[in-house]
């Protein structure tokens, strides 16, 4: 199939203009990245968004692979001298890989089978005689094939061999396979049962010890759960259909007469179905439903990850990061507005040390000394107790928000090569506290340092294709990074590596160049970085920001290739670019149609004007503070009927998990997400969303919490007051006299 026909096929499938599909494929083939094409090539694509471009990319890859396989099959059959015009037409018309493989199956090189052995004995003509069904003198015909030389000793042996050949022919017939495949899709059931004696070991799979449901409507989470139980040798999993109905369908297709031939064919059909066809199609359906379930699970993971990465940043604030703990204490770090570590220590406000006075003094001293504007507490062990302790420091300025931050993946980061490279002189606990503080300031910049699979917002993530999962999650991270933009002079290597076109090696080169030469003054300085070619610069430049660059547009999302357009706009108004940015009335005078060219259209020009209004604006939502119920700290504190604020931590196909501050997330089942019917939890809630929940059931022993959002679950929980933090002047204290030091600090804060 020609490339043009592939484009038309994609256009029809995705309901996109074929010209836009062709342009998009061309840009992708030329090395264009999805973020770049969607943002800076809107005229060529007709304004297609990232999702549409990704769909085009995936479809063209699939169709090209299909064409490669088609060519390979055609060459193989032609090499065997068996490629008829009729078969060639069928192969060229095949639109799916399964259809192609069905057509190729009879010609595929195979291991030695019963049919192969029968053919070696010269019994194929007898098999064809049976299938011809024009003569019912079966036993007389079979006598002709008795041969000592070919080890066919009787009529029964001859007929058995012929039936083996017929069984294989029928089981490899594309039309027959289609009939059984469709029957599986329509009527098959998936059935699981526990392996005898594995009941106790497989307690977590108890729901599936005796389970049955239609195969094609089995939700992805149940499919993956049952497959995991099978993999762990707890469950036996079967896909079953009505065999009698399936056999009747094949017989109707194959048998056209009555008599001895029909009897032999019926035996061959039953043997071929049970031995070859049914196991083959069942294996195919297992793979098909597994891939479907995996795809849905990966989409859920990707959606959750996107919400987590695009969580509202607090922004550039001086932050006190606290990694809470009991016996080992709470690690405390002070970070400046750029996230740089200023000071670190450990406090012991809890049992068994209970050095509460000293801990209060340290917190107050750090807040005063480093002009702290917010306190971030990790939500792991001792988090609620630590939150209560800090909120209980009576003269801690109320303007300093105390905020719980998810620790998901923080321990992985702390022990990673990335963390060791950043903080080689500090141990894991300090790195963890730094990560917690930085996550509050900018979740995206910090979370890109962690393997997305370690963040914990997936669904059966270890049961899906790991390469496919990694590629999908990497796409999500790149999409988020490029949609927000990256500050070139402060970005980490990990953040830079996700910028369109750059990658890890070039990101390292940028860091080294920045360390040697100092901050970048303009985007064009990037061309001096080793291995930064024009193509990479084209892809990356628009997503990199320089806040105080030489050119006023370097801080914006306007691509350098469009600077001349803005410069002309300013010149036409006898103004400077800064004037266009600062003067709304001046921008209103711009007539966009005056600047349309063959390569620059209104879509790009409108993007430029929007960017001039708020250069480099962060697209993420404004930060909102949040607090758990102060009376609830552990599962034992929960009672049925309680109404509590919570944060959505994970969204799955069967509902959402919500953190209510008791170190154990509760489940809002899909049926409890809203007053109306919900078919997809992602339409109702997102990771990081603040919600109200009602406690409907508490199982303390199993640590299971059932929640409901029916009623006013979507009501806003809390919003940031927007007040500025007031910090006292520096106070010196004597570490050997904790009480007097604390009194001195309290006195200063009161002033």
The named CATH superfamily of the domain at 122-303: Tex N-terminal region-like
Average pLDDT number: 92
Radius of gyration: 34 Å
- Terminal-residue CA separation: 80 Å
Q: Any idea what the CATH architecture of the domain at 122-303 is?
A: Orthogonal Bundle
Taken as a percent bin, the fraction of beta residues is 5-15%
For the biggest sheet, the summary is: 5 strands, mixed
Name the shape in a single word.
globular
CATH topology of the domain at 122-303, what is it called?
Tex N-terminal region-like
Provide a quick synopsis of the model.
The protein is an alpha/beta fold and 751 residues long. A five-stranded mixed sheet has the order 6-5-4-7-8, with helices on both faces. A five-stranded mixed β-barrel has the order 11-12-13-15-14. A hairpin with a 6-residue loop joins strand 12 and strand 13 (666-669).
Describe what this molecule looks like in 3D.
- This protein is of the alpha/beta class and 751 residues long.
- Among the domains are: 3-107, RuvA domain 2-like (Arc Repressor Mutant, subunit A, Orthogonal Bundle); 122-303, Orthogonal Bundle (Tex N-terminal region-like), CATH 1.10.3500; 319-464, Nucleotidyltransferase, domain 5 (2-Layer Sandwich), CATH 3.30.420.140; 635-708, OB fold (Dihydrolipoamide Acetyltransferase, E2P).
- It has 30 helices and 15 strands.
- The strands form four sheets. The protein has a five-stranded mixed sheet with strand order 6-5-4-7-8, with helices on both faces. Strands 11-12-13-15-14 form a five-stranded mixed beta barrel. Strands 2-1-3 form a three-stranded antiparallel sheet, covered by helices on one side.
- α14 (243-254) packs across α15 and α16 (356-369) crosses α30 (738-750).
- The termini are far apart.
């Amino acid at each position: 199939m020609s490339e043009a026909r592939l484009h038309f096929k994609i256009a029809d499938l995705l309901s996109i203009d074929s010209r836009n599909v062709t342009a998009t494929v061309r840009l992708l083939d030329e090395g264009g990245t999805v973020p770049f094409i969607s943002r800076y090539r809107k005229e060529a694509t007709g304004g297609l968004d990232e999702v549409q471009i990704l769909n085009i990319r995936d479809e063209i890859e699939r169709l090209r692979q299909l064409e490669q396989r088609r060519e390979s099959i055609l060459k193989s059959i032609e090499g065997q001298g068996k490629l008829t015009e009729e078969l060639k037409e069928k192969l060229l018309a095949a639109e799916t890989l399964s259809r192609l493989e069905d057509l190729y199956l009879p010609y595929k090189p195979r291991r030695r089978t019963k049919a192969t052995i029968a053919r070696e004995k010269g019994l194929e003509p007898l098999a064809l005689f049976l299938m011809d069904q024009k003569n019912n003198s079966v036993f007389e015909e079979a006598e002709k094939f008795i041969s000592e030389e070919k080890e066919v000793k009787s009529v029964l042996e001859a007929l058995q061999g012929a039936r083996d050949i017929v069984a294989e022919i029928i089981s490899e017939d594309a039309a027959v396979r289609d009939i059984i495949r469709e029957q599986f899709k329509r009527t098959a059931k998936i059935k699981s049962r526990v392996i005898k004696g594995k009941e106790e070991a497989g307690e977590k799979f108890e729901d599936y010890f005796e389970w049955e449901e239609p195969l094609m409507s089995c939700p992805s989470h149940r499919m993956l759960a049952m497959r995991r139980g099978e993999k762990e040798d707890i469950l036996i999993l079967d896909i079953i259909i009505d065999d009698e109905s399936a056999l009747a369908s094949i017989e109707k297709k194959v048998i056209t007469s009555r008599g001895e031939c029909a009897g032999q064919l019926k035996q061959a059909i039953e043997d071929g179905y049970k031995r070859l066809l049914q196991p083959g199609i069942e294996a195919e359906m297992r793979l098909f439903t597994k891939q479907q379930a995996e795809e849905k699970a990966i989409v859920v993971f990707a959606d959750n990850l996107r919400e987590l990465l695009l969580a509202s940043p607090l922004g550039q604030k001086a932050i006190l990061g606290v990694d809470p703990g009991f016996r080992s204490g709470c690690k405390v770090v002070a970070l400046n507005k750029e996230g740089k570590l200023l000071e670190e220590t450990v406090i012991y406000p809890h049992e068994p040390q209970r050095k509460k006075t000293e801990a209060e003094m340290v917190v107050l001293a750090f807040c005063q000394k480093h002009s702290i504007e917010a306190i971030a507490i990790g939500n792991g062990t001792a988090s609620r107790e630590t939150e209560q302790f800090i909120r209980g420091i009576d003269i801690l300025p109320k303007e300093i928000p105390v905020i719980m931050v998810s620790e998901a993946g923080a321990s992985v980061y702390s022990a990673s090569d990335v963390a060791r490279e950043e903080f080689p002189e500090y141990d894991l606990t300090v790195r963890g506290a730094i990560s917690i503080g930085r996550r509050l300031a900018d979740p995206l910049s910090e979370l890109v340092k962690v393997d997305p699979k370690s963040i914990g917002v997936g669904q059966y993530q270890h049961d899906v294709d790991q390469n496919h999962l990694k590629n999908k999650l990497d796409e999500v991270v790149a999409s988020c990074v490029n949609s927000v933009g990256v500050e070139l002079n402060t970005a980490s290597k990990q953040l830079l590596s996700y910028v369109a076109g750059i990658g890890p090696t070039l990101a390292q080169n940028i860091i080294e160049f920045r360390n040697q030469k100092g901050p970048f003054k303009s985007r064009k300085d990037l061309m001096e970085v080793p291995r930064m070619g024009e193509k990479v610069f084209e892809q990356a430049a628009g997503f990199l920001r320089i806040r105080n660059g030489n050119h006023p547009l370097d801080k914006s999302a306007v691509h350098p290739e469009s600077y001349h357009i803005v410069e002309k706009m300013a010149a036409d108004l006898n103004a400077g670019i800064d004037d266009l940015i600062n003067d709304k009335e001046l921008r209103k005078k711009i007539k966009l149609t005056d600047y349309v060219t063959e390569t620059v259209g209104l879509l790009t020009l409108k993007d430029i004007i929007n960017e001039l209004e708020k250069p480099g604006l962060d697209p993420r939502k404004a930060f909102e503070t949040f607090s758990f119920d102060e009376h609830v700290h552990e599962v034992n504190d929960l009672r049925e009927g309680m109404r509590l604020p919570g944060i959505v931590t994970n969204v799955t196909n069967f509902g959402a998990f919500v953190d209510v501050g008791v170190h154990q997330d509760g489940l809002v089942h899909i049926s409890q997400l809203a007053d109306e019917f919900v078919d997809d939890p992602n339409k109702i809630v997102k990771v990081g969303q603040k919600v109200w929940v009602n406690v409907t059931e508490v199982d303390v022993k199993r640590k299971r919490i059932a929640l409901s959002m029916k009623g006013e679950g979507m009501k806003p929980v809390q919003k940031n007051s927007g007040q500025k933090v007031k910090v006292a002047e520096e106070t010196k204290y004597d570490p050997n006299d904790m009480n007097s030091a604390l009194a001195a600090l309290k006195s200063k804060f009161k002033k």
